[in-house]
Amino acid sequence: MPAPQAQWKRKKKLDKQETKIQQALNDLASGIYKSCPQAAAAYGIPYQTLYKRRKGQTQDRRKAHSSQQNLNPTKESVLVDWAKFLASTGHPVSRRTISPKFHALTGQRPGLWYLTRN
Fold first, then answer.
1. What pLDDT score does 5 carry?
2. pLDDT of 98
């Protein structure tokens, strides 16, 4: 398993690339760029990625793999907001406090290493 810092760097890099792709798609839709190769070159992203995303053949990683995750983005944001609330009220955020909420949201028990991975 990669070190947490390496995972954060990779996630940050993917988020930046996703932002570039969305900006390029917006510029194509508004007519700033006439073709996918022009927009891809301007933003420094692969042409095929932009082309397939524009045609609807692919999705970003989060949407494409959301069915494989225990928490969908809505449930994840609920869990994050709840953990932030606990922290702001001075309650410790630990496996013991997160597991019941996770179980209530998903109907499943979190795995042994869930909190260290996510």
1. 67
2. 87
Domains detected in the chain:
12-66 (1.10.10), 69-117 (no CATH)
25, 50 Cβ separation under 8 angstroms: yes
- pLDDT of res. 114: 72
10-13 — which CB contacts under 8 Å span 24+ positions? none
* CA–CA dist 18, 45 (Å, integer): 10
The DSSP string of 55-68 is: HTS---HHHHTGGG
Ranges of the chain with pLDDT below 50: none
List the alpha helices (DSSP H) in 1-118.
4-30, 36-43, 47-55, 61-64, 73-88, 95-106, 114-117
Contact between 70 and 109 under an 8 Å Cβ cutoff? The reply is: no
Contact 75, 105 (CB under 8 A): yes
Residue 31, Cβ density class (10 Å: 0-12 exposed, 13-18 middle, ≥19 buried): exposed
